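Q: My collaborator sent me two sequences in one message, no labels, and asked for predicted structures for both. Can we handle them in order? The first one she listed is below.
A: Yes, handling them in the order given. First sequence, followed by its structure tokens:
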Amino acid sequence: MSSDATTAIPTLPFAEAAGAAPEAEAPLRGLGASLPQADARAKAEGTFPYASDLWAEGLLWAALLRSPHAHARIVSVDTSAAEAMPGVRAVVTAADVPGAATYGRRVADRPVFADGLVRHHGEAIAAVAADHPDTARLATAAILVEYELLEPVTDPEKAFEAEPLHPDGNLVRHIPLSFGDPDATGEVVVEGLYRVGRQDPAPIGAEAGLAVPRPDGGVELYTASTDPHTDRDLAAACFGLAPDQVKIVVTGVPGATGDREDPGFQIPLGLLALRTGCPVKLTATREESFLGHAHRHPTLLRYRHHADAEGRLVKVEAQILLDAGAYADSSSESLAAAVAFACGPYVVPHAFVEGWAVRTNNPPSGHVRGEGAMQVCAAYEAQMDKLAGRIGIDPAELRLRNVMSTGDLLPTGQTVTCPAPVAELLAAVRDFPLPALPKDTPEEDWLLPGGPEGAGEPGAVRRGVGYALGMVHMLGAEGTDEVSTATVRVLDGVATVICSAVDTGSGFSTLARQIVQETLGVEEVHVAPVDTDQPPAGAATHGRHTWVSGGAVERAAKMVRTQLLQPLAHKFGMSTELLQISDGRITSYDGVLSTTVAEEMNGKELWATAQCRPHPTEPLDASGQGDAFVGLAFCAIRAVVDVDIELGSVRVVEMAVAQDVGRILNPAQLATRIEAGVTQGVGAALTENLRTARGLVRHPDLTGYALPTSLDAPDIRIVKLVEERDVVAPFGAKAASAVPVVTSPAAVAAAVRAATGRPVNRLPIRPQAAVAATP
């Protein structure tokens, strides 16, 4: 691709670092402008109203009783003492659920309250509503539950032979992918066993909600839901109500890197409001969040790579085992991504991959950025490093000999029809200048591994450089019906966008403003609050709102544009295609007509509603074949680390990132998304692991679970953004935040391998794995 496909974002520090030529002045509005998010200032100043700030007249407070055991039979539940406490207004258990007893966004296998059997630590047993939060918590402690402890199944490998933990059995899904000739072999063979730990999405901001009963017998739920229509339907089924009797109002969303809110607390909240006839509020503690919501799947991976003497891949064999925890949730979709991307963005003539997702008595697993793809990336990139070492060639060169491009096949048999500039991305990070070595800088400016007060000695520090290539799919997969609806209304020169797409930090609300500004030339654009009275827009995952909801907004705005321009076109005897809107003015191709949008909008109300639905996909068949994905995004990262080879402490010095983004819609926002994704990946590589002992979560708080801080975040150099538009996507843009999360842990591990000579086959990297190998 030509050099003009590389965009340096203006006013941001990485433009100079990348050696990019200065650009023309950035636009002030519309697509391509660095518009700030509407709620950015309020969140920065601490005035943003989060869901935990909600209030209502006559408010009651809720609390949940959760199981202290990972696996137990419930012999009895006695709520009499709790019900007799002054101030307690209601206590509900499994026997009080009027509708469906189980729920699930993908598979309805999770009980609202444990009924007869506890399957994971922290599973809800009962809920209480009281006139004070302390009273509610004391009442949960007064509920007497008699348990018969059972042996927990915590090793996913043992789940195959264990007694069924669930009526649906222990196997959630099995995918045996077969592609090519099983008898093919290579001259060089490398094998590896890899493990990826349990990463928590750790949403900053309490999971909270308010339920308000309605006069018609229904209920309204005010929560930070990321998929309000699905949550409404789940809740309505459990309440025994019609969907139109339940309304979810999305409020106070602080951000999300997965499923933001656990429906497991929204449903008890609504049940209490319906039982008491009063508004009920619940704010989950951090411990409850760690115990209740979904985490990244812990994964066991076995790999065997075959290559010829020059390092070109011949065959990949893999076994992938995902620990789904107690319930299925999104494990089927995560497994499909893991199996499909098990070979990475490389050309592999023959691939044989078996994947399983199994139930255990561990905490529930579900959707977290890059699910499935992140785990396999750590494994296949470790294999590529092994292969390079065995053959004796540079790891970057080995990758360049094998990278895929547009027109190649995935192991699922699907042709890569979208832009896939993988070689260009890898070359960009390989050729980017390395950071200075500590000996070239003043010693006081050198941050030792372990932080400013690190106990190590400078002489024990070794520097390593590692590479990784990652890929993710965009939108849903395997036949998911992706559709979104949006309405654009203009009145008195002010535009309003109505769309139930939840902005979890992806910037959709800002994008919607930019689309309308560019299409209609209207300066003032508002995005209406989200609730389920609006048509559905789907979940806020896989970058789908940029594509699907953004596409719906664009189509609606273009329909309004036609309404605006038709009278003028008719008056001057020309088609609307000969008129253009730019900088708030309407002009004709020949310059005869020139007026302002404000003049033509004066006194008019124009509106239109439109849908966007990408082309359909299909489920993987019995051999793992099928066109399961709408689009793909790719990323290359070069990590530079300093490792204290005596203590095993690691400091990530720099992450050089090159990514194909399709089209840059908001430069500043794009850079933020990439930087955030890289930082989340660094956490997965070095610190984040929700540890369990016999199924019990250890230290479920932000002291025991180590998120990367500003001191842990490396210098992130965005050295190249390839703008090669995907023709099937609105605006040609690609999802931005998931693929750096997928790629960065593998790059950090590769750099630690280079520094220490050790295999590094587990994430997060343990200190003992970063101690240099004995010569």
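Q: And the one she listed second?
A: Here it is, processed independently of the first:
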Amino acid sequence: MAQQNEAHARLVVDDEFKVGPVHDRVFGSFVEHLGRCVYTGIYEPGHPTADEEGFRQDVIDLVKELGATTIRYPGGNFVSGYNWEDGVGPKQDRPRCLDLAWHSTETNQFGLHEMASWLHKAGGNELMEAVNLGTRGLAEALDLLEYANIPEGTARSDERIRNGAKDPFNIRMWCLGNEMDGPWQTGHKNAEDYGKLAASVAAGMRMIDPDLELVVCGSSSHTMNTFGKWEETVLEQTFDKVNFVSAHAYYFPQILPDGSRDMASFLASGVDMDGFIKDVGSAIDATKSRLKSDHNVYISFDEWNVWYMGEEPSRNPEGIGNWPVAPRLLEDIYSAADAVVVGDLLITLLQNADRVHAASLAQLVNVIAPIMTEPNGPAWRQTTFYPFSLTADWAKGGSVLEPKIESPQYHTERYGDVASTNAVAVRGTDGSVSVFVTNRSLDDECAFDIKLPEGFTPHEIEARTLHDDDIFAANTLHDQNRVEPYTNDSASMHDGSVSVVLPPVSWTAIHIR
């Protein structure tokens, strides 16, 4: 192994400067009818661990360990061609349908009732329901809301009861379509047309239940040609009717002309996410000012992850006679470096807790996911599982403190000079301090110092680091525990501060009591 240089970085933790509370919904995830996320993912009748409803218990156990909260469902691109009615009622009567988004066949053996039951078994996670505003509109959205939330006494609510759910599902958070700015989206619309439709649907849904929390579609990427203008046009028409505007972002290391990957820029993906959040925040503020509104709209970053988009695992089936059921799609195998980036993106979301009140790691199982399964076989944790689960465990319920970081810089092709160390501190309700930190440097380890708040005397410290000397090492079916967090024995306490050595390309969680 090549000799490493040592850099120095410092984080000052100050109780006087709070960004905002850690919202539980920031630890949401996403289940879409895509590839094997549902079928042979969370739902596989006949699997050795399956219960009487066909839910894999091994997956439920991992979902609980992951700490996911809100689950966005049923899409994603899938929802823009989905008829929700096809997924309710007796299973033998449900139709098999073409899914145009992923060129697959949807059997509809898993639908709203199954999702509600699965969520209950997985720990009571909140359902974040998306409505189809691609091929459908106001009437269908109102029917779904009536079916889901009205206790009884109407055609749709009584239908739900006949289908086995006496109590309403009481879904509070609803997505008004998905990525409607994207030309790939079934029913794609321009900002003006989508804004009018979303405003109409939002107004109608609030006539049934005025206290719903509604998410309007923002841009599906920071790089969309319509970014910014889309947000302002849509928000002009919907601002006082919605609670959130969505943001979506996926990152992967670009392939350079010499065939290598641009790992330096990839490790700094949080720089782009932070800029995205601030730009959307500016659009929200500008629209609020123009409308002279006293209403607040926040960001739901309801799709984010590492995704090797455009590469072999992400290629759809093709051919008019080829519509497979639950094909292996988007099954990226994540490396140690990918996990460091996921940890860095989580840090960025927390740093923006004043703006980002919800987020969804896309997706939960098999499809660009922290959890992988084999049909009739095991389930295991990908490398990206660990930064999510540790952050959720130590940050939930806390308050984010304004990050004050002194860090060396390094150069990237995409973002110029960026900080090699990125960190955030969370003050727990029990008085503890949790710090999450990445060392983005490919070459240098970092001596990282944490100055604790005045009067805070540390008695116990736990530091867990995710790092591998081979940054491309991964957890696979045949080597499921190759990359795991380990106890970082370099952590020490002295004079109101904590020090820890961060290896290059690493993510570390530090819990100080």
